[in-house]
Amino acid sequence: MSGRKIHIAIFASGTGSNAARLIQHFRNHSSVNISLIVCNNPSAKVLDIAASNHIESLLIEKERFFKGDGYGEIFKERKIEWIVMAGFLWKVPVTLINAYPDRIVNIHPALLPKYGGKGMYGKYVHESVIAAKEKTSGITIHLVDEIYDHGRIIFQKECIVETTDTPETLAKKIQELEHEYYGKIVEEIVSRPSFLVFRKTNNE
């Protein structure tokens, strides 16, 4: 990489556990830098995580995000090359998708295409999986397009859903997978463009 840094912006709306793991994963990385935390919630704990790690944060508002430039100009000024979603609850506007084609990555707490779409996040996903008596769930890492949870799948990892699991215990299993794999896969994606070939890996 000849000393050149790849700058990433993390989008998050809440507690920021995945954001914290990503920051930890890329701390002191030779070629990848978490340069900006973008948040739409002024009381989100992820803003404290950004501050404690000396990472600049940007609090965004709906009007400019959805009806303006999607803050794309700011991201370009800061040399942001990749956007990584880590629990960001707004839909990404087409303006930003067009500005970062195949460079916006999301993680979803289920095995897409099942249990995706508008309103399917967090506990709502796990409740649906349990109610359907699914035998497996897992994580999906995918590129973002203009449809909720629809972009090209890069990586999936399964976990077993036991008959005794509750949405809370399943959420814990899913979070463990997120923390184990998200940083590794994001590193592969941003460091090696050739990695962006269709991948669908279950039970490696």
The amount of beta strand, in percent, is 15-25%
Instruction: State the CATH superfamily name of the largest domain.
Output: Formyl transferase, N-terminal domain
Biggest sheet overview: 7 strands, mixed
Using only CA atoms, what is the Rg? 16 Å
Number of discrete domains: 2
- How does the overall form come out from the CA principal axes? globular
Task: Give the overall pLDDT as a whole number.
Answer: 92
CATH domain fold name of the largest domain? Rossmann fold
What's the helical proportion of residues?
25-40%
Q: Can you count the helices?
A: 7
How would you classify the helix and strand content by structural class?
Answer: alpha/beta
What does this 3D model show about the protein?
The protein has 204 residues and is an alpha/beta fold. The protein folds into two domains: 1-101, Rossmann fold (3-Layer(aba) Sandwich); 107-192, Rossmann fold (3-Layer(aba) Sandwich). Helix content is 34%, strand content 23%. It has a seven-stranded mixed beta sheet. Helix 1 (17-26) packs parallel to helix 7 (167-191) and helix 6 (123-131) packs across helix 7. It is globular, with a radius of gyration of 16 Å.
